[in-house]
Amino acid sequence: MILYPAIDLKDGQAVRLVHGDMDKATVFNDDPAAQARAFVEAGCEWLHLVDLNGAFAGEPVNAAPVEAILKSCDVPAQLGGGIRDMATIEMWLSKGLQRVILGTVAVENPDLVREAAKTFPGHVAVGIDARNGKVATKGWATETDVDATDLAKSFEDAGVAAIIYTDINRDGAMGGPNIPATQALAEAVDIPVIASGGVSSLDDLTALKATGVISGAISGRALYDGAIDLASALAALKG
Q1: DSSP, res 158
Q2: Catalytic: which of 51, 129, 171, 204?
Q3: What is the pTM of this model?
Q4: Which terminus of the chain is less hemmed in, N or C, by CB atoms within 10 Å?
């Protein structure tokens, strides 16, 4: 199981939110590229980046720090937030991003996801952010009546590289991930599923790995707070 350290970008800084609330941002590093390098030096194999401002604006806002991270780190990175058209997808992939994460458009324009996955095989992931099993879009500000599992199943034949499943109620709260919901989703589709939201201890990571069906986990606040030691976690997940 791959551990993806998260760098959430707001106003050019690396932050963490609680339950996706932009007014509850804690700044952890005002140099996101330096933070990314620290994660890489600790041994991470991937980076998970989120343009929080972009998720609300519907277009890239924190492009400069993302580009700085891509230039200074030699591990693959995935990015979500404000990626809602083919031009933006092409732009990011041309700059060295390994994987774009499409969230809002997965609900509002699923044909774009299919087109992108066909055009750039292996480089497109779907971000499914859910509150009580229902998908939320536009930086989690808009509630929908779309069922998370139904949305995942709708892309079964699209060729997407992964599904990043975030339980919004758990995100940034350090209360542990929603393992039953994430496992159920992973068992419902053949697409690799990455868990996000609430991963706050090594026990959480080993429990996710123990399901045998979850391919990765994203953690942010726990790494910044020291609740998870990245090097130790990476070693445990390889064992």
Answers
A1: T
A2: 129
A3: 0.95
A4: C
